[in-house]
Structure formats: structure tokens, C-alpha cells
Design a protein that fits this description.
Elements: E1 18-26, E2 48-56, H1 59-74, H2 103-115, E3 120-128, H3 129-142, H4 150-162, E4 171-177, H5 185-203, E5 213-218, H6 224-240, E6 244-245, E7 250-251, H7 265-270, E8 274-279, E9 288-290, H8 298-301
Length: 313
């Protein structure tokens, strides 16, 4: 698939016996500084928290391709001596991670992922942390002593992500990227159990029995398929988050429009492989579902503010 905006031509594959899913996050669920001050959408703290899953038809083949690409670049003198390729830095020399990888590396990884076509299918849920803070403030007002728990946001998004009518299978193998030093296996299993209950309540049947779900949690560096979902998430995050100036710690502005800069080119490149993005806090009460017939566009999601009306003298 060479054309940047080409949509995979093959039809939707038949229901697989086993569905292989890889889950990671972008941004953080952080709302407050340790002092208690709200820091959402400030330098170093994202405005959005995103959870995504990548359905991979042949994980072994994808892992082999990504590993071969990284080994090829490790042997390429063009990358020798760069910071991210130094083994002691434990970045691209060890694993792909879009945030740390050089632009040249990102291009080649995205090119490989796009060539996989409909063998990869990406889904995501997006949480606006300004809206989340409003809900948390209401809880604190109604329940004296209530304390915000970041893990609850992650679990909520996990439930939202897996409670939807996406492609079905006889069984599901879910690999989740480990967060920090904690695997939180039991919490993830509980969230997925709740998601299955949500699905049954919404659609009137169960997708599978509890034994059909196998869940593993591991560091992204140990699984190339987790590195692949990281790239899809990074593309989506670049769409949602503004670019920041590290020196001034202020959002970067376009010199012509004087609007904050967001980038949609990476998401546009992989959009044919996106099954759905559910923006939980945009539009109606249930949020907005962005799909192939309703693509995610900057002009619709972040329209420029209306021009001020000039008063007539």
C-alpha cells in the first residue's frame, strides 16, 4: 500500500478463531500537581488520555518484520552515534518508541505498518481531561473525603474500549503494555469482565465465556506488536495534543494563523487502518464515533474560534 491515503482493498476477513489484541496508552490520567493544583493541558501534562488496541492478524510476522527493520537500522552507519541508537540509552537500540525515535526512523516504521494493510486494525477511546476534572470536582463536592485515583481512569477507558461491538472471535488473547512498575493484572481482568457485562447488557448476548479471554501484561520493549500500537497511538496523540515550545513552555503557534499547532499528517497516513476512534467527550452525551465514513478532521474536532465581530462606528 504505497499511496498515503489509499484504503486497503481487501474485504473484511472472516471471524477468526483467535483474535490477537495489543493494548497501550498515550498521555497520562494525571489531573493534579502534588500540591493539588490542576495542571491539565500545561507543559508536561497532556490534555487528553487515550487508550488504544491494535488487532493483529499475524503477530509473529509483524514482530519479525519490526525486529528485522530495527536490526537493519542498527547496522546502518547513518544512525551510528545518534543518541537514541546508543545501547546505554535503552531507546531505539532496544525497541521502537515513537516519542524517542528519530524522524527518519518513524518514517520507516510507519511505512512498514501501512504496508500491512488490513492485517492491522486500530481502535481507540479518547478522554478529555478537562471534562474528567469537571466530573471529579462534582464527586468531591458530593462526597467529602473523596480522593481521585488515576488508575480508575485507566480502568474506565479499558472498559469503554472493550465494551464495544468490534469484530468477534472464538477466543481473545490480549497483551497489555505494563504501566510503570505495576502489572495490575487483576484490575485489568476486572475491567475486561465489566466490559463483557456492558457488552451483554447493550447488545443482548455474550461474545464468549470468561475462559475465552487470555490476558498478559508485559513491557512494550519486550513485544514488537506493543511497539506497533504505540505508533498508532502516537499518531492519534499528535492530532489531539498541541505542540509545545520546550524553551518557553508555551504552545507553539502557527506564524500565519496564530493558532496552536496540531499535526494530522501521521493520523491521515494510517487512517485506512483505523476501525474506530471514540471521542468520549466531544459532541453528544455519548461522545462521537469517528470511523471511515466519518473521519477525524482537525477542522471539525478543533475548529478555529470565530472571528471577532467588528463594531460599526
Amino acid at each position: 500500500m504505497n499511496d498515503l491515503f489509499a484504503k486497503p482493498e481487501s474485504s473484511e476477513p472472516a471471524k477468526p478463531a483467535v483474535q490477537q489484541l495489543f493494548v497501550d496508552e498515550a498521555g497520562t490520567p494525571t489531573l493534579f500537581h502534588e500540591s493539588g493544583k490542576v495542571i491539565v493541558d500545561t507543559f508536561g501534562c497532556s490534555r487528553f488520555f487515550i487508550l488504544g488496541k491494535l488487532e493483529v492478524e499475524n503477530p509473529a510476522a509483524l514482530a519479525s518484520k519490526l525486529t528485522a527493520l530495527r536490526q537493519q537500522m542498527l547496522a546502518d552507519p547513518m544512525f551510528a552515534g545518534t543518541e537514541s541508537f546508543k545501547p546505554e540509552r535503552k531507546k531505539t537500540a532496544v525497541a521502537f518508541h515513537a516519542k524517542d525515535d528519530l524522524p527518519e526512523v518513524r518514517f520507516r516504521v510507519f511505512d512498514l505498518l501501512r504496508q500491512c494493510g488490513d492485517q492491522l486494525r486500530f481502535y481507540a477511546v479518547v478522554c478529555d481531561k478537562f471534562k474528567l476534572h469537571e466530573a471529579e470536582a462534582a464527586k468531591r463536592a458530593a462526597q467529602p473525603g473523596y480522593r481521585f485515583n488515576e488508575n480508575s481512569v485507566y480502568d474506565f477507558l479499558m472498559r469503554e474500549l472493550f465494551g464495544k461491538f468490534h469484530r468477534l472471535a472464538d477466543s481473545y488473547e490480549v497483551c497489555v503494555a505494563r504501566r510503570g512498575n505495576s502489572t495490575r493484572n487483576d484490575a485489568i481482568k476486572t475491567a475486561l469482565t465489566h466490559a463483557e457485562g456492558d457488552f451483554e447488557k447493550k447488545f443482548g448476548f455474550r461474545r464468549s465465556n470468561p475462559d475465552a479471554w487470555t490476558i498478559t501484561v508485559q513491557p512494550s520493549k519486550d513485544n514488537p506488536c506493543l511497539q506497533a500500537v504505540d505508533y498508532f497511538l502516537w499518531a492519534l496523540q499528535r492530532f489531539y495534543e498541541v505542540k509545545w515550545n520546550a524553551a518557553t513552555k508555551q504552545p507553539q503557534l502557527d506564524s500565519k494563523t496564530e493558532l496552536v499547532i496540531r499535526e494530522d499528517r501521521f493520523l491521515n497516513a494510517v487512517w485506512p487502518q483505523v476501525g474506530e476512534v471514540h471521542d468520549l467527550h466531544f459532541g453528544p452525551a455519548h461522545g462521537t464515533f469517528f470511523t471511515s465514513p466519518n473521519p477525524l478532521k482537525l477542522t471539525e474536532r478543533f475548529p478555529p474560534p470565530p472571528s471577532p465581530k467588528i463594531k460599526k462606528p
